Amino acid sequence: MAGTFVTLEGIDGCGKSTQAQRLVEALGEAGVEVVALREPGGTAISEKIRALLLDPANAEMADECELLLYEASRAQLVRQVIQPALERGAVVVCDRFYDSTYGYQFGGRGLDRQLVDTCNALGSCGLDPDATVVFDLEPEVALSRATKGGADRLEAEGIAFQERIRAAYLQLAQEQPDRVRLVDAVGTPDEVFERLLAALADVLPMPPEGEEA
Question: Rounded distance, CA 23 to CA 45, Å?
C-alpha cells in the first residue's frame, strides 16, 4: 500500500494518547494527509464494542470474550477505515492496535500466546504496522495518571496487571526491534515528543525541521 501505518502503544497512563495527538498535528502542519484513530473504536460498530469492553459494569466478562471483542472491533476498523486510507496514500496514526492485545490479553490476562497471535492475525485482516512505538513508564506513575478521574474496567485491574503488560511490551520490543521502537516516556511532553519523532524518522514523510513540506 502507498500509505504509512504507525501505531502507538503502552500501559494505561503512559502518555501515548497525548503524543498521538501531537504527532497527528505535526503531520498535518507538514502537509501530510493523516488519519487519526484509536482502538478499540474508530467506526460506529467499533465504538459500541469499546463501550462494552471498558464499562466497569461488565466485570464478569470472560477473558476469551474480551479477546474476541477486541478482534471484532479491529477487523471492522481495518476494513472500513485503515485499508482505504493506506490505499490512497495517507499516514494512519492509531492509538493502540494488535500489540495491545498481545500486551493485555497475553501479558496481562495470561492467555496462550499462540491463541492471541492467531486471533490478532484474524482481527488485523493480515495488516501489520510499518512501525510501532511503545512508550515505557513505571506502572505506579502511569496508573496514578490514568485513574485520576476514575478507572475503567481494565484500569481497575490494578498495578500487578499493568506490570505484567509492561513486561510483555518490553519482551516484544526485544523480539521485533525493526518494527517495535521503545521510547522513554519520562520527561516533559516536548521531550517525549522529540524522542517519538526520532524513533519514527525512517518511516514518516515529514520534512526536516525548518523546511516547508
Answer: 26
Residues ≥6 apart with Cβ < 8 Å to 193: 19, 22, 23
Positive or negative, the CA dihedral 67, 112, 147, 23 is negative
Mark 51-89 as b/e (b = at least 16 C-beta within 10 Å).
ebbeeeeeeeeeeeebbbbbbbbbbbbbeebbbebbeee
Per-residue pLDDT for 211 more than 60?
no
CA 116 from chain centre, in angstroms, equals 16
Residue with cell 499493568: 162
pLDDT of residue 152: 84
Domains defined along the chain, listed by start: 4-199 (3.40.50.300)
Q: Which of 91, 107, 86, 99 is nearest to 160 (CA)?
A: 107
The pLDDT tens digits for 124-149 are: 999 999 999 999 999 999 988 888 88
| Rounded Cα–Cα distance for residues 82 and 52 (Å) | 22
Pairing of strands 34-38, 91-95: parallel
How far is the C-alpha of 136 from the C-alpha of 138, rounded, in Å?
Answer: 7
> Average of pLDDT values for 35-60?
96
